[in-house]
Amino acid sequence: MRSATILGVLVIALSLGSAAIAEQHGGREWDRDDHSNGREQRHAQARHVQHEEVRHVQHEEVRRGPEHNFHGAHGPAQAPEVRRPQPQMRYAKQDIWQRQRARDWDHEHRSWRERGGYRGYRIPQARFHERFGRGHWFHVHDVPVMVVEGAPRFQFGGFWFTMVDPCPQTWSPAWYRTDEVYIDYVQDGYYMFNRRHPGVAIAINVSM
Questions:
Q1: 135-187 pLDDT tens trace
Q2: Environment class of 20 (CB within 10 Å of its CB; exposed 0-12, middle 13-18, buried 19+)
Q3: Cα–Cα distances in Å, from 99 out to 72, 143, 169?
Q4: Number of C-alpha atoms within 13 angstroms, CB side, residue 17?
Q5: Among candidate residues 131, 140, 121, the one with its CA nearest the CA of residue 181
């Protein structure tokens, strides 16, 4: 009888110990599961924050444009386009000829003979008769004009002509627009003549 009692007590003790061990083991399982779930939640939150930061940076790049990109963000930043100023004429055509106007032409002009002779480019004889002389007049306003070293230069018949003499003060201020002029070779060099003012020869230099 006593043996049976002791045996029963041992069985109860073993049962209680097994239950305690199982409960302790199960608690550790729950703790491990809770720890895993917490770590996954933290990783998910970190990924969400990183995604929001990327979206913020992309939004800033789109709003500010490529020229404001940070260095190394989605490729190198593009430098803004630099527009170079376009060259302009130094003088308007009216100003060019007003600056070339003489105050006392009789004392200011000189023939090529007085200048020591003509030493510039000579137009071939055949081309000269085709495009130049008394019968081939034009308006200076209708041809290209530029200023070289302060002297006006115009283009006609495939050649450039630089004004060496000033224009007479007796000519109209708008002579380059209204008067008919022509190029001719007389004795010692090339000259420009105005059909409205015969006998006045303006020394000119020829170049290609």
A1: 999 999 999 999 988 889 999 999 999 999 999 999 999 999 999 999 999 98
A2: exposed
A3: 58, 19, 11
A4: 6
A5: 140
